[in-house]
Inverse folding.
């Protein structure tokens, strides 16, 4: 495949002008004038064939480097390396191509390489699904040595990136930042506590928790953050049904929830808690019994890496019955699903009542900010009033569902995709700090 360059278009236009002028001023009087355009046309065709003949001598070494692993929804950098191994300078344009499983900038970049020169460039890709993903082929086009035609070339690239759920970063530091003193307290530190992390002294901290040795080493007053010696049980129920396929931003609801579950499980394991995980649609799909430590985290992430949406309606009651069999004591049950306008007789409400009778139930759901903005947006199309009415009704149904769930003994967390994980993790930290479970 070829594309005519700007210079080539100018030459073709000049040939057309010569042909038109020959027809006007030559005609039957002068046959030579009417066919004068054929000479530059033949030269142009010969020049194009000459560029094609010289093209194999323009040796280009094009390669890409990418990490072996990437986190779902987090951009990563891909390094592009181009080396001109030929004897002539080369002008080329490069445009990365990637499958629908990625989002990124597919801008076209032009390079000018002298003989033996190497250039490197970077662009970012964001994985949108889990699993082993190929980066896709790379498409380039090289300008011929006469500057007449761009010659296209596809570079096959079979490199793969393994996309996994997100993980916590600096877990201990973030816990210490959250557990800060807020008021003056002279209450002594009780027994049955274990050391968690150091943090800087804040106004109101009791002097009993100041670690003087750590303060001397860091040249700043440091205090010991303690936690109660408790082991909490937690079960996470992840909805993989039909509504989990809905797109919210760049990711689907399921993939947003997968990142929340991965980070929550890692935080719970770092505290020594026991974690169980159940994925469900119309029936339980995968299950991990109560586990702790590295083994529990590994098993949970293995389930999350293989999770997929199922085009069927979800049945939370079946998953709730399975969770009740797994949990022997009072535990925290986190349900990540899409809030539906469920009445009291629905299986969703029955499942919440069944679990909340013994356990602490938390329902977490993504709040679509795009739909919220449609409620009172100004109309510019005849369909906009209907869209606004649908957005208002959608918000009203969600408010009613939250009220019903709270009446049934469950706590409800709704937040945007960017803040849902922080909201769930903060709720877990508060429960553990208060020993509410």
């Amino acid at each position: 495949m070829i594309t005519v360059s700007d210079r080539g278009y100018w030459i073709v236009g000049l040939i057309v002008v010569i042909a038109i002028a020959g027809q006007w001023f030559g005609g039957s009087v002068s046959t030579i004038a009417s066919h004068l355009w054929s000479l530059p046309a033949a030269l142009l065709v010969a020049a194009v064939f000459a560029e094609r003949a010289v093209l194999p001598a323009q040796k280009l070494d094009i390669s890409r480097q990418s990490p072996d692993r990437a986190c779902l929804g987090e951009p990563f950098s891909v390094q592009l390396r181009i080396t001109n191994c030929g004897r002539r300078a080369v002008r080329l344009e490069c445009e990365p191509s990637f499958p629908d499983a990625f989002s990124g900038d597919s801008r076209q970049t032009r390079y000018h390489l002298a003989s033996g020169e190497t250039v490197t460039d970077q662009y970012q890709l964001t994985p949108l699904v889990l699993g082993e993903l190929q980066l896709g082929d790379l498409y380039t086009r090289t300008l011929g040595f006469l500057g007449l035609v761009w010659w296209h070339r596809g570079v096959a690239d079979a490199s793969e990136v393994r996309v996994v759920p997100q993980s916590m970063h600096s877990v201990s530091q973030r816990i210490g930042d959250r557990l800060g003193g807020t008021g003056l307290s002279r209450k002594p530190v009780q027994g049955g506590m274990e050391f968690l992390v150091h943090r800087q002294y804040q106004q109101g901290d009791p002097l009993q928790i100041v670690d003087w040795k750590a303060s001397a080493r860091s040249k700043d007053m440091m205090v010991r953050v303690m936690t109660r010696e408790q082991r909490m049980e937690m079960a996470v129920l992840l909805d993989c049904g039909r509504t989990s396929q809905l797109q919210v931003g760049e990711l689907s609801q399921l993939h947003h929830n997968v990142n929340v579950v991965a980070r929550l499980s890692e935080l719970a394991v770092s505290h020594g808690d026991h974690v169980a995980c159940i994925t469900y649609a119309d029936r339980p799909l995968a299950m991990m019994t109560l586990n702790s430590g590295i083994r529990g985290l590994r098993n949970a992430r293995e389930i999350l890496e293989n999770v997929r949406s199922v085009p069927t309606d979800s049945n939370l009651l079946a998953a709730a019955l399975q969770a009740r069999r797994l949990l022997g004591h009072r535990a925290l049950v986190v349900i990540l699903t899409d809030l539906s306008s469920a009445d009291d007789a629905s299986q969703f409400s029955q499942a919440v009542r069944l679990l909340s009778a013994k356990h602490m139930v938390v329902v977490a759901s993504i709040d679509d900010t795009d739909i919220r903005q449609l409620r009172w947006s100004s109309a510019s199309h005849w369909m906009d009033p209907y869209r606004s009415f649908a957005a208002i009704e959608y918000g009203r149904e969600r408010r009613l569902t939250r009220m019903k769930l709270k009446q049934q003994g469950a706590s409800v967390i709704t937040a945007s995709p960017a803040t849902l994980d922080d909201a769930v993790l903060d709720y877990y930290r508060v429960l553990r700090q208060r020993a509410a479970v």
User: Anything to note?
Assistant: The radius of gyration is 32 Å. Residues 170-191 have pLDDT under 50 and may be disordered. Residues 192 and 283 are 42 Å apart (CA to CA). Residues 384-407 form the longest helix (24 residues).
